[in-house]
Amino acid sequence: MKVILLKEVKGIGRPGEVKEVSDGHARNYLLPRGLAVPESAKAARSIQKNSEDEAKKQQRMNRQAKRDANKIHRQEFVFEEPVSPSGRLYSAVTAERIAAKITKQTGVQVVAVDLPNPIKRPGSYQVKVDVTKQKSTEVQVGVRAIE
Fold first, then answer.
1. Backbone phi, psi, residue 48, to 5°
2. What's the CATH code, domain 69-146?
């Protein structure tokens, strides 16, 4: 039986490929689990349309991610924190706090902030921020001491 794969199946193929498989394998495994559909002109058109729609959606998301990254690129986000007499912050500036500040000030949702250790001293820091899994940029994080 010829089937069109909807998802990657180990040992058979990738999504969108037309494969010849045994009738039993198709009826008992691939079709019930939604991994494939029987080959037909209608199914082929549907899958082609879905892949085109997915490609357009991905392009829109990439353009939005680029706009978001440009919006926050090299922008400075300032934290004013109390410090101890030794010069250390009482409350460290963490990746979560930086992401929240970026979202609050710019409206850009951040996937991850690359901060190996929380910031514990006043100063200016370059921090890598991931807008999506594929798109990242750098921002300036300033920590000012208040008495």
1. -60, -45
2. 3.10.430.100
